[in-house]
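User: Please fill in residues for this 682-position structure.
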């Protein structure tokens, strides 16, 4: 005996609480519990935890497994949603393969059911009939002449136990009002969409009535890559129209429980409030002289309603909706408009100063700069023999120091600020990096350091740093001017990598990394619409990214954060694993309340410690249970440099696409310049 939960309900009419990423089954619509969780808990007493399976689309499968804490082996993954018949066929084939005698309860994840005892009694009766070979459906006694449901005409009573059971005479899909009224008076039942049958029996019916679905299931089986390709062939149809309306031996058990499908905000309101009432979900009601109103929000948020009537006020992380309850049906149109894909061609026009081209140029810059560093005329012998490296630099230049700390096998300290660390002495190689050459903190700390060590190099496009280096007889590496510092990372970092290669400190060949970046420059460029960087930018749009790196990818997380700040002009934060497991994880408890737009991005690399990977798996579960979304991206290539820089480069692209979605020009960073100008006058 198995229960198969169909987690496909998209809930468009429940936008903006229900979104593509976090749809209806994950929402606590009528109690503190999400519908999916409530459905799961409801069937566990019947079939045990091991007996519950879930059918979900590919995009949601992992979320379902994390949310319910069920192993991936109990997920039946549908390549693409195609209505209920293909989902039923897939589940039946999947379970019949494991257990040819399997009897299945198939039930949607997004219904509200009250009266658990009655629910289980009805299902026990249905299971007994299913074992005898019937296709059994649960019917709901109608409370009104609804035109949005399918109706069932019950026929002769069947032999059964204490719960009555009837043959089904016919199914009628969504009748017009007059017919619905007639059905109501003649004792018809609503079709609940909850079915019970033997897997083998429903597969026989699918063989008979849905030849394309049956053909695919027989040919390629219920899982695997082959299925993904073949899925286009199967019929897109409901199990009601595809099989139940035509099959023989169909039985119905009239429900002895309260059932609602919570299709729209009006239905949610009705399930919670009596006539005239104000209902609220997620937050305490805060209303005066309000009637027939629904408020949806989150814990701790004050949503006040004064003197209003017949409204749904839905304050979701994604958007705020205010609608008349009796127009709830139309929310679907708004949802579709709000979630429609952006017009990238129009958005590219916002890149007035050419940041997309600058990002695309990074691998080429890096290649040039590597040779520049390797072949620079430097006093190599005087520079060699250091025991540690200190890199002084700020912002888009300073990040090179952190990246060098991850890439070089020796001790490297990135120093930000006016003072150089106290340990700097003759053993230290001091590097100053400032793209403009005019950053006062970098100049001050470099000058301080020069009084303690003669081993030093400066990198800039010119400016005061060049003059300072010349004045002290320190070698200077000049890189091309005219860029934003953050868009010159290829020059800044790779010229230094070239130097450290020549010094023998860095033995890894960065050319593999460059080849990976060149591939990405093509793949993620504006010409490839819908590319992975654009998809990720869309997922992070209107959210506050919390970017997590681990060890050597921590500076990459910092670069993502600063790129999102400077290009997309929005807040972002970064953290480092495993450290976040010792503090930030506690903050998740109220994140949904105080920063509902938060979205974690895990930067994963082949260099991660295996225990970090285990921690990420647990964090993903913790986040999902708290209703917080996350994204996961992986480094590419073999070498550490490739892993690290591919993650970094993806972030650069994402930040620029995010800027365009935010409708801002990614290039100018006026607040930084204004602050520098004001300081120059003090
Ligand atoms: C990045 C940016 C800043 C600067 C920082 C230091 O594009 O504009 O983060 O990098 O203000 O200036 P430089 O790099 O000239 O030393």
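Assistant: Residues filled in for all 682 positions:
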């Amino acid at each position: 005996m198995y229960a198969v939960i169909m987690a496909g309900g998209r809930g468009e009419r429940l936008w903006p609480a229900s979104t593509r990423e976090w749809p209806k089954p994950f929402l606590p619509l009528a109690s503190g519990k999400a519908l999916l969780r409530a459905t799961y808990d409801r069937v566990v007493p019947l079939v045990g935890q091991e007996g519950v399976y879930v059918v979900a689309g590919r995009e949601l499968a992992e979320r379902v497994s994390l949310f319910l804490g069920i192993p991936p082996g109990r997920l039946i993954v549908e390549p693409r949603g195609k209505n209920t018949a293909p989902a039923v066929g897939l589940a039946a084939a999947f379970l019949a393969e494991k257990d040819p005698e399997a009897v299945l309860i198939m039930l949607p994840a997004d219904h509200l059911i009250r009266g658990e005892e009655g629910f289980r009694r009805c299902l026990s009766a249905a299971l007994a009939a299913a074992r005898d070979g019937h296709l059994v459906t649960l019917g709901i006694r109608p409370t009104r002449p609804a035109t949005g449901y399918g109706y069932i005409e019950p026929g002769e009573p069947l032999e059964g136990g204490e719960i009555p059971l009837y043959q089904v005479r016919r199914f009628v899909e969504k009748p017009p009002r007059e017919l619905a009224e007639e059905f109501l008076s003649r004792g018809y039942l609503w079709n609940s969409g909850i079915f019970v049958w033997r897997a083998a029996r429903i597969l026989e019916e699918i063989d008979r009535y849905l030849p394309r679905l049956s053909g695919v299931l027989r040919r390629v089986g219920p899982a695997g890559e082959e299925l993904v390709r073949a899925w286009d062939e199967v019929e897109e149809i409901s199990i009601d129209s595809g099989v139940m309306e035509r099959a023989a031996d169909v039985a119905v058990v009239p429900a002895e429980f309260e059932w609602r499908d919570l299709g729209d905000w009006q239905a949610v309101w009705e399930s919670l409030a009596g006539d005239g009432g104000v209902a609220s979900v997620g937050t305490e009601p805060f209303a005066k002289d309000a009637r027939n109103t629904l408020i949806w929000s989150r814990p701790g948020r004050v949503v006040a309603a004064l003197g209003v009537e017949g409204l749904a006020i839905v304050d979701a992380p994604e958007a705020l909706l205010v609608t008349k309850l009796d127009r709830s049906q139309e929310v679907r149109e708004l949802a579709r408009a709000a979630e429609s894909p952006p017009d990238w061609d129009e958005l590219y026009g916002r890149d007035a100063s050419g940041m997309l081209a600058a990002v695309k140029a990074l691998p080429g810059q890096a290649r040039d700069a590597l040779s520049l560093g390797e072949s620079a005329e430097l006093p190599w012998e005087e520079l060699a023999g250091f025991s540690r490296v200190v890199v002084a630099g700020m912002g888009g230049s300073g990040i090179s120091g952190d990246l060098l700390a991850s890439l070089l096998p020796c001790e490297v300290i990135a120093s930000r600020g006016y003072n150089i660390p106290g340990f700097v002495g003759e053993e230290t190689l001091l590097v100053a990096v400032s793209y403009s050459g005019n950053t006062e903190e970098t100049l001050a700390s470099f000058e301080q350091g020069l009084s303690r060590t003669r081993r030093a190099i400066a990198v800039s496009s010119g400016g005061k740093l060049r003059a300072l280096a010349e004045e002290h007889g320190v070698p200077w590496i000049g890189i091309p001017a005219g860029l934003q510092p953050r868009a010159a990372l290829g020059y800044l970092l790779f010229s230094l990598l070239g130097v450290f290669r020549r010094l023998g400190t860095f033995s890894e060949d960065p050319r593999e990394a460059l080849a990976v970046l060149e591939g990405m420059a093509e793949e993620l460029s504006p010409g490839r619409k819908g590319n992975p960087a654009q998809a990720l930018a869309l997922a992070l749009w209107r959210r506050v990214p919390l970017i997590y790196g681990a060890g050597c990818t921590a500076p990459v997380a910092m670069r993502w954060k600063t790129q999102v700040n400077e290009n997309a002009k929005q807040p972002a934060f970064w953290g480092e694993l495993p450290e976040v497991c010792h503090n930030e994880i506690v903050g998740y408890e109220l994140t949904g309340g105080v920063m509902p737009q938060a979205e974690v991005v895990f930067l994963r690399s082949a260099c991660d410690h295996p225990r970090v990977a285990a921690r990420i798996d647990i964090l993903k579960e913790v986040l999902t249970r708290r209703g917080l979304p996350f994204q996961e991206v992986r480094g590419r290539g073999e070498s550490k440099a490739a892993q690290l820089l591919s993650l970094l480069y993806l972030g650069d692209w994402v930040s620029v696409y995010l800027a365009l979605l935010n409708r801002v020009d990614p290039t100018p960073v006026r607040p930084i310049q204004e602050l520098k100008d004001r300081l120059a006058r003090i």
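For context: The pocket of fructose -6-phosphate is lined by residues 394-397, 434-436, 439, 442, 484-486, 566, 669, 672 (CB under 6 Å).
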